[in-house]
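User: Fold this one for me? It's F-box domain-containing protein.
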Amino acid sequence: NHLVLRDLATPPSLLNLLCSTGDTLTRLILHLTPLSLLASLPPGQFHALQSLVYCRPSGRNWRHTSGEPVVAFQDAPSLRRVALDATFPFTSGRNAPSFVLPWNQLTHFLDFDAVSESTLLFTPHFLSQTWGDDMNGNDFSHGVWERPPGPDFMVMNSVTTLALGFPSSMAYTGMFDKVDFPSVRALRLRAEEACWQRYGESQSRFLTKLQTFKKVEFLSLWVPRIDNGELESLFETAPRAHTLHLFTHGLYTRVFQILEAKPELLPHLHTLVLDYNESGVRDSIEFTYLANSFRRLLEARTSNAHPTSCIRRIVVWSRDRALEREFEGVIRRFVESDGIVFGWRLSERRENMSEAMWMEMDPTSNGWEEARVTLDLIEA
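Assistant: Here's what I get for F-box domain-containing protein.
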């Protein structure tokens, strides 16, 4: 009930194979199969299909120029998980999406378009969008996001985790003009920089939109270049957040200082997740400075020091065991006197952020190994 097809051209025998096995297939992986071939398949062939993966690695030019969508999977009643790198148009024109899917029944959807660098990833708990560099100038009011077929404006009540990625600066995107996410509880923001002074109106619209996510309890930041004022503005948009996840260790000291000095920010914070990449903190002076800031934050946000915020749990992801001992030395007395729980997670992930890494962090993606393998092929 599994079928893997790799590096195929357009033989008629492939069509016959897919049509003859469609009723029994539960998992289908298509690697370098031209979209024009899939577009010729009729709907209603894949009654048992549960997982579909389509992979077209970068460096291979499989352009879908016919404009005909792939409709073979639109009536697959058992289909729940789909991973594609071809949902968005490859040409400059705004054609219909290349795949027509039964969106209302999917539990997992991953789109990785290596050509336009657009990524859409969602489960009932997860939606992620990354914008490429091919936007019109610096106009962030019209992103490259293309919604699935449906009404002009969608309300996605099922999405509780939203991850937004930007190739450079974080700013408002046109996706917000097409989709609303009233149930978001976890918000992940990834960008090289904030630089909101450059995009004044976009900054205001972006922050205003974030403030509509009134249920956010988990806030994750991967923004290497962001000033203190911008950090404070982000924290102000998530007053109910109880978990803060930081991926860039260069932010840690400043974040600790801000949260110590301004108790009104993240007033319900109780969990800190610190994610160190391969480089980590190696300089002893740097770590001493960070450790002192961390210690002062814990003093300000533990026991009865803060009226609402009480840090109870600290989790550190890293490959560096020496760093584990350093952290234990900093928080030992808080573990003993205040009952803080300290967790160490040995990270086997890549140094660079990747969609495969987000999938690893999302427990609802467990058991979808073929999609992870596909991402590894695409990113290789």
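One thing worth pointing out: Residues 1-113+362-380 form one domain.
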